[in-house]
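Appendix B, example 12.
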Amino acid sequence: MKQPKEKVRKRDLEATRERILAAGRREFSEHGLQGARVDRIALKAKANKYMIYYIFGNKEGLYLACLESLWETKTSLVDPPLLNGPITVDHFVLLTAVAMDMFRQNRETALMLLHDLVSGGGHLRKLKEKRPELFTTFSVLIMLLNQMMEAGTIKKIDPEKAILFLALHLISFTSISPQFDILVPRDSDKYESVNDFESWKQFVGDIMRRVLEVA
């Protein structure tokens, strides 16, 4: 039995939209909004560039949609263990490791975030207005840290600064790490250690424990 034409068209449109989003994320992560080219996105997506304008309105509309899809991926991977796990220092260390893995496996997320932040963060602000639920992680983490301080299970710290510092690390590490050889040459005896991602997760975890754990 043949499917209704309208259903087939809708399915084809959704498939085209996903291809354009995937191509757009790659293009924007490499070139930012200003340097990105719709022609290149259409070529990589194997789509007519006029379909990009039909679905997303303009290049900025596509950029926002790409940013939204990447942020949704971050939320789906990082937030569940945050909202469901126990409130302990080990829990925060584990969450940080999960987030580091997520950004490493989805490098486009970190690169797009950096491009937008360097450009003033205007599109992240627009995304927050449109989808405030995607930005609740920050306030939840602040609440959890305050609860832990009140319970005496961690040291007294500035929770906002702590989470902002951690966010800066998570976003920038994935983008900067491939360039470590600028300061630590690849032929040096230290490069292998500096380039070891798992040891970085352990290193960050050790720092978090020193900052948070009560002696």
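The domain at 5-212 is CATH 1.10.357.10 (Tetracycline Repressor; domain 2). The chain is about 75% helix and 0% strand.
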